[in-house]
Specification:
The structure holds four protein chains of four kinds. Chain A is mainly alpha-helical. Chain A has one domain: ABC transporter involved in vitamin B12 uptake, BtuC (Orthogonal Bundle), CATH 1.10.3470. Chain A contains 18 helices and four strands. In chain A, strand 2 and strand 3 form a beta hairpin. Chain B is α/β, with parallel strands linked by helices. Chain B is globular and about 65 Å long. By secondary structure, chain C is mainly α. In chain C, strand 3 and strand 4 form a beta hairpin. Chain D is of the alpha/beta class. Helix content of chain D is about 40%, strand content about 20%. Chain D has a six-stranded mixed sheet with strand order 6-7-8-3-9-10, sandwiched between helices. In chain D, strand 4 and strand 5 form a beta hairpin. In chain D, helix 5 runs parallel beside helix 8, helix 7 crosses helix 8 and helix 9 runs parallel beside helix 10. Chain D starts with 10 loop residues before the first helix and ends with a helix. Classes of the chains: A mainly alpha, B alpha/beta, C mainly alpha, D alpha/beta. The interface between A and C is large, with 53 and 54 residues.
């Protein structure tokens, strides 16, 4: 099927990208979208049939952030079998880092006109900025923190958990406990992150007004670019020998150990990378939706992310992207069209996908069934056969 | 070529067709957006308000509509998900092109949609009591500000009839509304000569269900010999277990009265209130108030919802007032144009369901009477005290040093939601 | 340590009294002043019928102050007919009849009110609520009424009424009541009540005492008792004594007594924390125990577990609605019937879910998470569509209302006590089913080795469905109990789902005793942290502790060891 | 970039470890015979006991394997064979006792990966290969060399590695299956692949747990041949039930029973031991 000798002679990146049909299509769409949508939104007149309204740009931008988040979950769940039910925490932390920058950018334009303190601090009678807010008036620092903080949390959490060989549902549940604890912590006003109301009422980013169509289009393009880059990184990881080790860990962890690999380091690496990606997604998300609040830490959201991946097709990366788009578009569509009954549809969709499309939507498309996901899928089929006899 | 692009194009096409459709319809109908959560944690409170708006729209249409047009309600479900509120608000305004939106319950949902309404210059009617400290050109606040609820309630507790409380427990859910209200109250209580040692503040997580320790603490705090009262800003879900624990631990209203700002008829519907008789709530409306307008409203509500057991509550009245004010303002302006309607809103009067009239002020808050009610054994409230006249809602509290300086006034020459000096 | 605790127990008689707080009330004070002046205990019918009627009609006023004056006048002469009137007023049953402006007691029967004459106590007609206007009471009036009733009741022939009156007076701690109390002490012959009266006297005598000897005697009486009220009396006395200056030996004695009382109270505080922890633990246990079967035994990551609890709670609601016309309110039967009903309804829904969805997913535990999440969304929305989004009212039967209150301030509410007991019964029941029945054996066989079980003739599909049904049914039973302390709304399940998973995982998946121990230890730890850290931080600490604990024991509290685990 | 990661602990470390082991262990008897044994052994298991929830899986187990030796371990179910493997490979920690590799490295203080990198390969009772990978990738992953994360991330297949993989493919008779998914192999082929993966690790000691369970007769024969060939280069310990197969191996046999050694010697010698007959046939 695959000629490895051929493959390894090529420049690696181009080599494995060419192998990856779904990825090529995804990247092509992203490139096309990042060029066409700003044009359609900014240059075409409102009356034009191809004009893309602003709300659509923001909406698509939001989906892209969710897609990146789903990608990060697929990287660990699809390829390493780590089912994180707390990935929303990394997303939210990235979002908070960006939110803090945007909050500092407001400056004295807040309602109390205090140049040093965000409104909610003035309001709580705080007299000076808490130390952990230092530096967030600098964009580069906020961006670094948006990646570093989730990465650090993932590193510490992962170090403890993987070293102690916490696996399976135990790991899933403690990731859930982690995000739940953060949810409660961020709800507290005393934490200095705006409590339940979170951070909101942002004005501008790098001097560009967040309300302007141009900035929206710019954020959309940035989301496309980062999704594309993270996809390439994720694909690079999964195609490397490290990626093979990850899949091996997913399928037979103890075999990998007895083969001499330090499983915990591999898991730690990929978990941290994934958390950084989630953090980037959060940082891109916040300026586009205009609010970050502890709701993003909600355990239910983290479960939903996993569902996006499952709906799209686990272990394929592009499937996760597709899943995030499908579920979120369905949510947008049904909450508007049938607000009283949409949960029936969404719930039904999840049940139907697990029962009838165990490989996700992507697995139902024949052209993709044979790509990277194949081995996983055949494994599933086998297990399904074994279990289905019950 | 590939599914995703097709799906994307499809989505775009669908959105476009909806837009053109709505543009075509705009000539015939006036659209009213309803932005209340119908699922998730807030559905329990917000669903009722959605039904209220639908009832009001229905009623308006039966009476010939508005400006000779039919009114159409566009209902969406933001699902108690705050970023989704912003998304849905944008969708309502940009895609469905509604003329006005009635919606939101929690402060965070309002904060989330606020920039959207300001950016797109649309209009939101917010019908729930809240912590104040906000004034937006695009939002009309028809619920109570802290000075229309919390301060009169504490005044009552400290009055002779209220029991002459000298020690106050401030219980709240840990988020902005309780924190702010309690901050205002603490400052107010200090002014009234109650020392910090006689104030106990306690916060609990959302949906807190185990109140044993806290109720026991309150009892202990109250055993010091001074008359003690509890001010509760406990939110939504947590109230039922709180009151059940209160009843079971036998905290009698005459010993330790509890006054709540977030507990109305709807919240009590889930509790057996017999052991809670005498505990208090402060609102601008109670279902039990005997007035013709109120009886008519309740009858209409029962007919609309098809269930005589359903109760009415304060946010419903706030929705009612807001809706009718908007209707009158549209009629006066002769258009649904947001800027014209906004100007017409100021000074607009609507009869309260409980008697008297509510007036919209230029700070976008209402002047309303304040009522204190005692819980009765049938789950209703009996009004034991009310303000002499109406109270003007304060956007900026006088009891917080930073906000006391600010003024909100949206008429020329102020045109400002948070200024210290007039702006021109 | 043990001796100390023992002595504490001995010194605090478990006087079971109806719950009551209580403080100095202005109205009460005034009422007593009048009483001291005029009271003639056992005076028969101090008022003529006409006088009583007239005086009662003066209650029809808006001013609370005037009402209090009237109440005091009425109570002052100890007329035995006054107590029922005041009691009716306290309960909100006193009305003015619009037709003749007479004051009557109104008893609601269905939609009509029966009028009862306040003088004769006979029925004198009936009407709808529209023809009556209620004499309104507020909290101030309730206090005054209760104090007035207490003084009237102090000489009641009924021992229970007298006891309550003494407790009431003790709570009020109003020195002006002292002469009255002294007179009551002279007449009292019940030993126990006499002791309580002496204690009540001491609380008043401390401040009012004339000479050091009297005060020391009062301190001595007080220091033998352990209640928060005594602590308040002593600390107030110490504070004022320090400010005003007093005999040093009295001050020293008072301080010693205060220390004693505080020490004993803090022991009781700890007992209270443990109890509340156990109570929280029992709630967690009930919420988690069904999950211990569906998740722990079967390995299904059952996100719809919370909705099974919700279904149980709604079944309770429906059963109560159906039976409300047949049974009197407060009857325990609707709740008792709700238990099997909830088990059947939730169990049946569980079987349906298992047959339609889960059976295709065995061996794919993570996918059960997704499917059951979908199921949970559907069930929530279905409940919302059928019952509406608002809370439904589930009433508490009489046996679950109220509390046992110890004079030490410890309150054991009946509903919590029953829930603790109920949770233990449920766990014991499950343990028996698993251990001693053929079904339990088959269930264990199937979960351990499905293929082998199948080949020895066990119908594995059947066992799976029943097992899932059992877990769901037990969640339903938990819903019956939780409906007594929580709100019955479509969100009910979401409140408990995360905690349930934490408990099962903490205890060790697949181990019932782990779940039991896990629930109680999480509950107790939480309740011990709460006083120091507050409810929010306590919960955060518990979660962090759980995360760290799993590092230490990656398979929970009771993990199986050895080869079997990974086979 | 490739050889950055040190696989085994430094010599100094192992020396101290060994000293501690010697002092703490029950083998302080200073038995000269033992000492000499120790210095020559590749695997030295002495006085090892382990208990699971009250069940004594291993009871003062001691035996030695010399370099280059092929050793079969037999015993009835529950004799502790797999537990013994778990202890040698670091999966389970013994309650008491010493396990030394090449007379100097204390295995009880190390984890699976360390032990594997030290040169001990293990084949599981149930064939465990990476089912989602091709046969080639399975061998590639097992290929000795850097085990570090970044090493793996930037690893490029070298010609030498490819040659080794090809050679092993021939050894385990899976040449034509190189690009087949491991999941699609037959049971026997998976067993061979797993053995092949062990070979790729270039171990000094191979622990093989029931290599012929579930194999056809011809496969069993091939496997015996394979193991005998392997035993020429490496020390091999085989755990097996199948007497015929053990006979085919033609090596020294250790019989385990209830967690300790019952008998040791040539198969025909052992088979005459009355205690062994009692254990195998007596019940």
């Amino acid at each position: 099927m695959t000629d490895y000798s051929q493959k390894y002679k090529m420049t690696p990146v181009v080599g494995w990208l060419l192998q990856d049909r779904g990825g090529m299509i995804l990247l092509a769409i992203l490139i096309a979208a990042s060029i066409l949508i700003p044009i359609c939104s900014l240059l075409l007149p409102q009356s034009s049939a191809f004009h893309v309204p602003t709300w659509m740009v923001s909406l698509l931008g939001k989906y892209l952030c969710y897609a990146l988040l789903a990608l990060s979950v697929d990287l660990i769940w699809g390829f390493c079998g780590i089912l994180s039910l707390g990935h929303g925490a990394f997303f939210a932390l990235g979002g908070y880092a960006m939110g803090m920058y945007l909050m500092r950018q407001i400056g004295d334009r807040g309602v109390y006109g205090n140049p040093d303190l965000p409104d909610f601090m003035v309001f709580l009678n705080w007299t000076e900025l808490p130390w952990y807010w230092y530096g967030f008036d600098m964009f580069w620092f906020a961006i670094v923190m948006a990646m570093f903080v989730p990465g650090l949390l993932a590193f510490v959490f992962g170090f403890l958990a993987f070293r102690s060989r916490v696996t399976g549902v135990y790991l899933s549940i403690i990731t859930q406990a982690m995000t739940y604890a953060l949810l409660l912590a961020f709800f507290r006003n005393d934490m200095g992150f705006g409590g339940n109301n979170g951070l909101t009422d942002f004005k501008d980013l790098l001097g560009y007004s967040l309300q302007s169509d141009g900035t929206r289009a710019g954020l959309f393009v940035a989301s496309c670019v980062f999704l594309g880059l993270c996809y390439i990184v994720a694909r690079g990881i999964t195609q490397s020998r490290l990626g093979k080790v990850l899949i091996a860990i997913r399928d037979a962890e103890s075999r990998v150990r007895f083969t001499g690999y330090r499983v915990e380091y591999y898991k730690l690496f990929v978990f941290t990378v994934s958390a950084v990606m989630a953090g980037i997604a959060g940082a891109l998300y916040v300026p586009q939706v205009g609010i970050i609040n502890p709701g993003e830490f909600a355990p239910a959201l983290s479960i939903e992310i996993v569902i996006w991946v499952a709906v799209g097709g686990r272990g394929t990366l592009y499937g996760a992207v597709l899943g995030a788009f499908i579920v979120n578009y369905a949510k947008t569509f049904f909450t508007g069209v049938m607000p009283d009954f949409w949960l029936f549809f969404l719930g039904g969709l999840f049940i139907a996908v697990t029962l009838f499309l165990p490989k996700g939507v992507i697995g139902a498309v024949p052209a993709f069934g044979s790509a990277n996901g194949q081995s996983f899928l055949s494994g599933v089929r086998k297990r399904l056969n074994a279990g289905g006899k019950a | 070529m590939n599914k995703k692009l097709q799906a994307l194009m499809g989505a775009g096409a669908m959105a476009l067709s909806v837009m053109t459709m709505s543009a075509a319809q705009a000539a015939d109908t006036i659209k009213v957006g309803v932005l209340h959560s119908l699922s998730g944690t807030m559905a329990i409170s917000e669903t009722t308000l959605k039904d209220t708006v639908l009832m009001l729209v229905d009623d308006l249409n039966k009476n010939g509509g508005l400006l000779g047009k039919q009114v159409e309600a566009v209902v969406v479900d933001p699902a108690s998900d705050w970023p989704l509120f912003a998304e849905k608000a944008r969708e309502l305004i940009e895609k469905d092109q509604v003329d006005v939106v009635f919606g939101c319950w929690t402060s965070v949902s309002r904060k989330s949609v606020l920039p959207v309404f300001e950016e797109l210059n649309s209009m939101l009617f917010y019908p729930v009591q809240y912590e104040g400290e906000e004034s937006s050109r695009n939002v009309f606040y028809t619920g109570a500000a802290p000075n229309q609820q919390a301060i009169p309630a504490v005044d009552y507790l400290m009055s002779e009839d209220g029991g002459g409380a000298e020690r106050i427990v401030l219980l709240g859910t840990d988020y902005v509304y309780p924190r702010t209200t309690n901050k205002i109250l603490r400052s107010y209580l200090n002014d009234k000569g109650i020392a910090d040692a006689d104030i106990m503040e306690n916060y609990t997580p959302f949906g807190h269900s185990d109140w044993q320790s806290i109720v026991a603490d309150v009892k202990a705090f109250a055993s010091a010999g001074k008359k003690t009262a509890v001010v509760s800003t406990i939110n939504g879900d947590a109230n039922v277990p709180f009151y059940k624990e209160l009843a079971n631990q036998g905290i009698k209203a005459e010993d330790i009265p509890v006054v709540a700002f977030s507990v109305g008829e709807e919240e009590l519907a889930g509790i057996d209130t017999a052991p809670l008789v005498g505990h208090l709530a402060a609102w601008n409306y109670f279902q039990s108030v005997e007035a013709d307008a109120n009886t008519a409203f309740i009858d209409k509500w029962h007919a609309f919802i098809g269930d005589d057991a359903r109760v009415t509550n304060d946010p419903m009245e706030a929705t009612y007032i807001g809706f009718n004010m908007w209707k009158q303002a549209v009629e006066q302006a002769g258009t649904t144009d947001v800027d014209a309607v906004r100007q017409a809103m100021y000074g607009q009067e609507v009869a309260n369901l409980t008697g008297g009239t509510a007036v919209m002020n230029t700070n976008h808050h209402l002047s309303k009477p304040v009522l204190i009610g005692e819980v009765q054994d049938d789950g209703q409230f009996d009004v034991v005290w009310e303000t002499d006249g109406t109270v003007v809602g304060d956007a900026w509290s006088d009891f917080l040093p930073e906000s006391a300086k600010l003024t909100a006034d949206w008429t020329y020459p102020w045109v400002c939601g948070n200024c210290e000096k007039p702006m021109y | 340590m043990r001796n100390e605790l023992f002595s504490v127990l001995r010194r605090s008689p478990f006087s079971l009294k109806k719950v009551r707080g209580g403080f100095v009330r202005l109205g009460g004070a005034m009422a007593c002043l009048m009483l001291v002046a005029f009271v003639l205990p056992n005076a028969a019918q101090a008022f003529s019928d006409e006088e009583l009627r007239n005086i009662a009609e003066r209650l029809d006023t808006k001013s609370s102050t005037q009402k209090i004056t009237v109440i005091e006048e009425m109570a002052a002469d100890g007329d035995p007919r006054v107590a029922p009137i005041l009691k009716a007023m306290l309960e909100g049953d006193l009305f003015v009849r619009d037709s003749d402006e007479h004051v009557v007691i109104g008893r609601k029967k269905g939609k009509v009110y029966t009028h009862i004459d306040i003088v004769s106590g006979e029925e004198v007609g009936e009407s709808s609520s529209k023809e009556l206007s209620k004499i309104k009471v507020n909290n101030r009036l309730r206090g005054a009424l209760r104090d007035a009733l207490a003084t009237l009741n102090l000489f009641s022939p009924d021992l229970n009424i007298r006891t309550n009156a003494v407790e009431q007076i003790m709570d009020a701690r109003d020195p002006t009541m002292l002469p009255l109390l002294l007179r009551a002490i002279e007449r009292e012959d019940d030993e126990t009540l006499l002791a309580r009266m002496e204690l009540a006297r001491a609380t008043m005598a401390l401040a009012a005492g004339e000479n050091p000897a009297e005060r020391l005697a009062a301190i001595d009486v007080l220091s033998s008792e352990t209640t928060p009220q005594i602590r308040a009396v002593l600390s107030q006395f110490v504070a004022s004594a320090e400010a005003e200056g007093i005999e040093p030996e009295v001050l020293a004695a008072a301080k010693d007594a205060l220390n004693d009382v505080e020490g004993r109270l803090s022991t009781w505080q700890t007992v209270g924390d443990v109890y509340r922890g156990i109570s929280l633990g029992s709630v967690l246990l009930l919420a988690a125990v069904g999950l211990a079967i569906t998740f722990g035994v079967m390995g299904v990551i059952n996100m719809a577990h919370g909705e099974m609890i919700m279904i149980g709670a709604y079944t309770t609601f429906v059963v109560q609605q159906i039976l409300s016309s047949v049974l009197p309110s407060g009857s325990p039967w609707s709740l008792i019937i709700a238990v099997p009903a909830a088990f059947l309804v939730a169990g049946m829904i569980g079987v349906v879910i298992e047959r339609c969805v889960i059976r295709f997913l065995y061996g794919r535990p993570l996918e059960t998470l997704l499917a059951t999440w979908g199921v949970s969304l559907v069930l929530q929305q279905a409940t919302r569509t059928i019952f509406g989004a608002t809370n439904q009212q589930v009433t508490a039967p009489d046996f679950m209302s109220g509390a046992i209150e110890f004079s030490t301030g410890l309150v054991l509410t009946y509903n919590r006590l029953w829930i603790i007991l109920f949770s233990l019964i449920v766990v014991a029941g499950i343990a028996c089913v698993l251990r001693y029945t053929a079904f339990g054996l088959q269930m264990r066989a199937v979960t351990q080795n499905r293929r082998m079980a199948g080949s020895v003739g066990i119908r594995t599909g059947y066992v799976d469905a029943l097992t899932f049904g059992l877990g769901s049914g037990i969640a339903g039973i938990a819903g019956v109990a939780l409906s007594q302390i929580s709100n019955v709304s479509p969100n009910l399940g979401q409140t408990y789902i995360i905690d349930s998973f934490m408990v099962v995982v903490f205890g060790g998946v697949g181990n019932l005793w782990g779940t039991v121990l896990g629930a109680f230890s999480l509950g107790i730890v939480n309740k011990f942290l709460e006083p120091f850290a507050g409810a929010v931080l306590a919960k955060i600490f518990v979660l962090i502790a759980l995360i760290l604990f799993i590092q230490k024991r990656p398979k929970g509290l009771f993990a199986l060891k050895g080869r079997a685990v990974e086979a | 970039m490739s050889n950055v990661i040190a696989n085994a602990p430094s010599n100094a470390d192992t020396m101290t470890l060994e000293k501690e082991g010697a002092e703490n262990g029950p083998a302080v008897m200073a038995d000269a015979q033992r000492k000499s044994n120790r210095s020559e052994t590749i695997l030295y298991v002495d006085g090892v006991s382990v208990t699971f929830d009250g069940f004594r899986a291993l009871n003062n187990l001691s035996f030695y394997v010399e370099p280059g030796e092929l050793r079969a371990i037999i015993g009835p179910n529950g004799a502790g064979k797999t537990t013994m493997m778990d202890i040698i490979t670091g999966k389970t920690r013994p309650d008491t006792g010493d396990v030394l590799f090449k007379s100097e490295t204390d295995l009880t203080k190390m984890d699976e990966a360390d032990i594997a990198n030290l040169g001990i390969g293990r084949k599981f009772q149930k064939p465990t290969v990476f089912e989602s990978h091709t046969v080639f990738d399975n061998l590639l992953l097992a290929c000795s060399g850097g085990r570090g994360v970044f090493n793996a991330l930037f690893h490029r297949l070298s010609g030498a590695e490819k040659a080794r993989i090809d050679k092993t493919l021939t050894t385990i008779m899976l040449d034509d299956k190189r690009d087949e998914m491991a999941a699609n192999l037959s049971h026997g082929q998976k067993q061979w692949l797993e053995i092949g993966m062990l070979l790729m690790q270039e171990p000094e000691l191979l622990l093989v747990d029931e290599p012929v369970a579930g194999m056809t007769d011809s496969e069993t024969e091939e496997t015996a041949k394979l193991l005998r060939a392997i035993a020429k280069e490496y020390s091999v310990v085989v755990v097996e039930h199948d007497m015929e197969f053990v006979r085919d191996l033609d090596c020294k046999v250790t019989v385990l029973h209830e967690g300790s050694v019952l008998a040791e010697g040539r198969l025909d010698h052992v088979q005459k031991d009355p205690r062994v007959i009692e254990v195998y046939l007596g019940r």
